[in-house]
Write a structure and sequence with these properties.
Elements (H helix, E strand, L loop, with lengths): L1 H10 L30 E3 L7 E5 L2 E5 L4 E2 L2 E2 L1 E7 L22 E9 L2 E8 L2
Parallel strand pairs: 1-3
Antiparallel strand pairs: 2-3, 4-5, 6-7, 7-8
């Protein structure tokens, strides 16, 4: 999944295969809506794969998994982003790197048979 996020950032499009295959029915009038002009600070990409948290190209990529799985609960993510420390902010209004992955705490909560427990992913 981290490799998929890396490809997503490289091709700068939410559409997984750009340009699409000739066999795919795709409406090109809306292709501009799939553009990813900048790398996001946080990308939440749920999938059927196992939950994970990774830093890809200075972006925090979170796969919270599925909220429900058959008759039991699934997984979800709690993301806390702390502000930069006062010492890290330069004087004079100069731009600073955002550093969101370094200032974030991601908790993946798992609900199994009505008993909840939380995996802590302290990133980094």
């Amino acid at each position: 999944m981290g490799l998929m996020a890396n490809h997503l950032f490289d091709q700068r499009s939410f559409y997984p295969l750009c340009p699409p295959s000739v066999n795919v029915n795709f409406d090109y009038t809306h292709i501009d809506q799939t553009a990813l002009p900048v790398t996001p600070d946080i990308l939440i990409a749920p999938s059927d794969l196992r939950y994970f948290v990774k830093s890809v190209k200075n972006s925090l990529v979170v796969n919270p998994g599925k909220l429900t799985k058959f008759n039991s609960g699934g997984t979800y993510a709690r993301i806390t982003v702390h502000g930069p420390r006062r010492n890290d902010i330069p004087q004079g209004g100069k731009a600073i790197p955002h550093g969101v992955p370094d200032r974030s705490v991601v908790q993946i909560a798992v609900d199994v048979n009505k008993y909840s427990f939380i995996f802590l992913f302290n990133y980094p």
